[in-house]
UniProtKB/TrEMBL annotation:
This is Tyrosine-protein kinase ephrin type A/B receptor-like domain-containing protein. SMART domains: Ephrin_rec_like (SM01411). The keyword Membrane applies. The chain crosses the membrane at residues 261-279, 314-336, 558-587. InterPro entries: Growth_fac_rcpt_cys_sf. The lineage of its organism: Eukaryota, Sar, Alveolata, Ciliophora, Postciliodesmatophora. Coiled coil: none annotated. It comes from the Eukaryota.
């Protein structure tokens, strides 16, 4: 009883240091005890050090620079001891100094250390070391010692050589006053820890370090707790999901290009017709490119002779262009749009293959994080840059997942702590798996938590991604405490098969979705933030009862494609042959009709001339029958035309 104690923390447990005091028979305690409190409520006590110089009860202590100062006290409940005992907590070296208060001695008092002095008040009095029962001390003592053998050190919150207190907006760090981080403020003088730099409340922000007050948030922006840079309302982050798209081929691309080629063919046709009409030489040259020489119609009772015609040349050019467009479109369709994708949801128990994701990443972002996040220690590694190494106070636990390797990195970007876990060849070996992330920094808090999970899908070159943002009940709260915030996800196993060599014949992966709303864990306000410790997140991963099978089949094989292509080309040739023969027939009929008209017109004119001449000669020589020598018969047609008109 009547002992004194103080606490220290380790990464795995808390320590309670107990010194001084006495038994119920007032036997003084010379032992420094340590009681360790583990996270699973297990307690273990041990003896740290034993010394007769520690036998004081009804005293008071303070800790400074790894040294314990035990100031005054009593022994055996009868003797007042006016000593200051200084113990080095690392080497356990002890020095004792006698202090004379002149008027009297005190015990059962309280001690405060500020600057380079001790301040003592309260307790009882003693005369010549003899305790006066039921006495009360109402004198405030200030003790300053500047001797070569012993000197009261500057208290935390003050700096040497004059023990100058740290001003508002700063806190004591090792041997200097450190400005409070952005997003925080401090109105304390002689602040001893960064925990005395409080986050700005909601609606305010602090853009600079070392501020003793926060600034009102501008209009049109939001300032959650701990903001150092106002967030524009349009930039507010929301949950999102990206899933593999259904295969659609490139039918739009093919259609657009084929239409462009058809436009080009039509334009070329009009150009050729225009040139053929304007320039007779162009029309005559067309016969040289005629590929339908053996398809032209023949006259009856005339030997068959293969011939090239101008109309045949024109249709040959059209056929070549149309065949080119058809072949080009067919090739593009075969190479770019020859796949049909079939998707089906099946019971997961029917999938016999082992499902694993080649790459799987969990990225947890703690927005407006209060701690450091990344380690500032020099770590000997060639795998990661120093700016991506997590603090030792950031840890993770994985259950229900199997993987070949995992990489843990951390980044601090715009006051956001980003914790990454990147897996390779991940497999879900339990129906429910979990990833537990714990941040144990003294300033581990965040106003929002975002979890982004990305998995390689079974579909090649595609990923499944989902991002969930978790917000506290209101902007006046932030995440802080021992109860983790739980986010629920569901993984759907997926299998991919393909008949095309463009993709792997077999792949597996996962499709990610959310299974239920998140459970918000411990939260704190701006004022109660340091009444709790730790920041924890639990990512729950559930295996879906259904799986997805995706199959990509070839519409046509190469043999079928070539056969169809040749068939379409010869079909086009037949169509153009028919069109050419029909056109030549129409042109021939029109020419015959025109020649007959010319023949009849010439015949009529010649008959009139003959009638006129015969009548005139008959009048001159009625008894002679002679043909006029001056008369020339008019003909505008050839013998072939006359023969054709018969």
């Amino acid at each position: 009883m009547r002992h004194k104690c103080w606490m220290t923390s380790d990464s795995d447990f808390m320590k309670i240091h107990i010194v001084g005091g006495a038994t119920f028979e007032f036997y003084p305690n010379p032992i420094l005890f340590i009681v360790q409190l583990y996270s699973d409520s297990y307690i273990q006590s041990s003896i740290d050090f034993l010394s007769e110089n520690l036998v004081m009860s009804e005293n008071d202590i303070f800790i400074s620079n790894n040294r314990m100062f035990m100031v005054f006290g009593s022994g055996w409940n009868k003797i007042a001891i006016s000593n200051i005992t200084v113990m080095d907590l690392v080497t356990h070296q002890i020095n004792t100094h006698r202090i004379d208060l002149q008027s009297c001695e005190i015990y059962g008092h309280s001690v405060s250390h500020y600057g380079d002095a001790f301040y003592m008040f309260g307790g009882g009095n003693a005369v010549k070391s003899a305790i006066i029962p039921n006495s009360i001390n109402n004198i405030l003592y200030k003790i300053t010692i500047k001797e070569s053998s012993f000197e009261i050190p500057c208290s935390e919150g003050t700096i040497k050589p004059d023990c100058t207190p740290c001003t508002e907006g700063t806190y004591f760090l090792i041997d200097h006053c450190q400005p409070c981080p952005k997003g925080t403020y401090s109105s304390y003088i002689s602040a001893t820890n960064v925990d005395q730099c409080y986050p700005c409340p909601a609606g305010k922000y602090s853009p600079d370090e070392g501020l003793s007050y926060c600034i009102e948030c501008p209009i049109g922006t939001e300032c959650p707790v701990g903001t150092f840079n106002p967030i524009y309302i349009l930039d507010v982050i929301s949950s999102s999901s990206i899933q593999p798209l259904a295969y659609s081929g490139q039918s739009t691309y093919i259609t657009e290009n084929v239409i462009k080629m058809w436009y080009s063919v039509v334009a070329f046709c009009f150009l050729m017709l225009f040139l053929a009409v304007i320039f007779n030489k162009v029309w005559m040259i067309l016969s040289k490119v005629d590929v339908f020489a053996n398809q032209h119609s023949q006259d009856l009772n005339v030997p068959i002779i293969y011939k090239k015609t101008n109309i045949g040349g024109l249709f040959s050019l059209l056929f070549i262009l149309v065949a080119f467009v058809s072949i080009a479109g067919s090739i593009m369709n075969y190479t770019l749009n020859n796949i049909t994708e079939i998707k089906a949801l099946v019971p997961v128990m029917t999938i016999e293959d082992d499902i694993l994701a080649k790459s799987f990443a969990i990225v947890t972002t703690f927005y407006t994080y209060g701690g450091k996040c990344i380690s500032s220690e020099n770590v000997d590694t060639i795998l990661l840059p120093s700016s991506m190494i997590c603090l030792k106070d950031i840890s993770y636990t994985i259950e229900g997942l199997s993987y070949s390797s995992v990489t843990n990195t951390c980044e601090m970007i715009d006051s956001n702590c980003i914790v990454r876990l990147e897996f390779s060849n991940l497999e879900l070996i339990q129906s429910i798996a979990s990833v537990y992330i714990e941040l144990k920094e003294s300033r581990s808090f965040a106003n929002n938590i975002g979890v982004n999970i990305t998995s390689s899908s079974s579909i090649p070159n595609e990923v499944s991604n989902i991002f969930v943002i978790i917000e506290p009940p209101s902007k006046n709260y932030l995440f802080r405490g021992t109860v983790p915030t739980t986010i629920y996800f569901k993984l759907t196993p997926s299998v991919f098969t393909s008949e095309s060599t463009e993709w792997p014949s077999f792949e597996t992966g996962f499709h990610i979705s959310t299974s239920e709303n998140p459970d918000i864990g411990s939260i704190a306000t701006q004022k109660t933030i340091y009444s709790q410790a730790y920041l924890r997140t639990l990512i729950n991963i559930e295996k879906s009862e259904t799986g997805m099978k995706t199959q990509r089949k070839l519409n046509n094989t190469l043999f079928v494609f070539i056969g169809g292509l040749l068939g379409s080309v010869f079909g086009l040739m037949g169509i153009f042959t028919t069109a050419m023969v029909f056109t030549e027939g129409l042109v021939g009929y029109a020419k015959k009709k025109e020649d007959r008209k010319i023949y009849l017109n010439d015949l009529y004119k010649n008959m009139e001339k003959l009638n006129y001449e015969f009548n005139r000669y008959k009048m001159k020589s009625p008894d002679r029958k002679i043909r006029p020598t001056r008369y020339q018969i008019t003909t505008h047609y050839s013998h072939e035309r006359v023969h054709g008109l018969n």
